[in-house]
Design brief:
The chain contains 13 helices and 12 strands. By secondary structure, the chain is α/β, with parallel strands linked by helices. A 7-stranded parallel beta sheet has the order 8-7-6-9-10-11-12. The longest helix is centred in the C-terminal third of the chain and has 21 residues, at 291-311. The model has no long low-confidence stretch (mean pLDDT 96).
């Protein structure tokens, strides 16, 4: 029996996760990764659905060529590589899988804070170089410090809960959550961003990058923050003005930064000179890079596509309201 729907897996995804499609007789899938844009444009018209991660850019050209496309699923939470406005025009659903990598990003955020506070990267490097510089590596504790969570969704909530167990005071700024929700998770919610920023010892960012958040943390905000504050970004690089972050770190406007994401990736020290600073801990966008998370997001993407194509269910669809108008 021929398959009714075809799905293109355009970026590398867990083979174990994609096995979800085997549960559905009417859906087939092809894994075709590391393609050029021209190759993608040539083949995409065959498919009813696509799964992407961050490498493939689903822009206006792709949507124009994808004449049979009904749904694009992002195996992950961020979807800035998908032109949602064009998807709306074409009537294509855009799905995300935020629950699949939540725990991985939560754990990395905590790990970054601990690495910075206890000088773990410097300690590791010095030991490998045959040095014993214990006195130079005295750190600080997270206990009794104030964690400020900017964006109290799944990941922000997870970070806050773990930090509460570690003895940190947790506060938050998020225009889209209620005081009732904040009370339920034991977080003090601020209505004024500047007042919030002035309180934090660690600022953990958990917002998407869009027109309202792009560059929202910059020179003005660094001036407001304590000079002992540390910023942690495992969300999106563009949320911070990265040039002004470098200046703030060099001028000791803030004490340090833990950065996993960049406005241009792959990132280099030439593009982001703060990578080489002593008061910075950096990693190459590892937030969702756990074995468990990669299986989870692939499973969720496959299942959500199947539910939409076969049952008309929109699960974690970012443009459902527009499509149903």
């Amino acid at each position: 029996m021929s398959k009714q729907f075809k799905c293109l897996v355009a970026d590398s995804c867990s083979a174990e996760g994609l096995k979800i499609f085997d549960n559905y007789d009417s859906i087939s899938y092809d894994v075709k990764t590391k393609h050029t844009k021209e190759e993608l444009l040539a083949m995409v018209s065959e498919y009813d659905a696509m799964i992407v991660r961050s490498a493939t850019k689903v822009d206006a050209d792709v949507f124009k060529a994808a004449t049979n496309l009904k749904v694009v699923a992002r195996a992950g939470a961020g979807y800035d590589n998908i032109d949602v406005n064009v998807a709306n025009e074409k009537g294509v659903a855009v799905l995300i899988t935020p629950a699949g990598n939540t725990n991985a990003v939560v754990e990395l955020s905590i790990g970054m804070m601990l690495a910075w506070a206890r000088n773990i990267p410097k300690a590791d490097k010095s030991m490998k170089e045959g040095k014993w510089i214990k006195k130079q590596l005295k750190g600080t504790e997270l206990k009794d410090k104030t964690l400020g969570v900017l964006g109290i969704g799944r990941i922000g909530t997870g970070v806050a809960k773990i930090c509460q167990v570690m003895g940190m005071e947790t506060i938050a700024y998020d225009k889209f959550v209620s005081q009732e929700f904040a009370n339920q998770i034991g977080v003090k919610l601020y209505g004024d961003l500047n007042e919030f920023l002035a309180k934090v010892d660690y600022l953990s960012l958990h917002v998407p990058e869009n027109d309202s958040t792009r560059g929202m943390i910059g020179k003005e905000q660094f001036e407001i923050m304590k000079d002992t504050a540390v910023i942690v970004n495992c969300a999106r690089g563009g949320v911070i003005n990265e040039k002004e972050l470098y200046s703030a770190l060099v001028d000791n406007k803030i004490a340090g930064a833990c950065i996993d994401v960049y406005s241009k990736e792959p990132a280099s020290k030439e593009d982001f000179p703060y990578v080489e600073l002593e008061n910075v801990v950096v990693s190459p966008h590892l937030g969702a890079s756990s074995a468990e998370a990669q299986v989870n997001v692939a499973k969720l993407a496959a299942e959500q596509i199947a539910q939409l194509l076969l049952n008309g269910k929109y699960i974690d669809c970012v443009n459902q309201k527009v499509l149903k108008k």
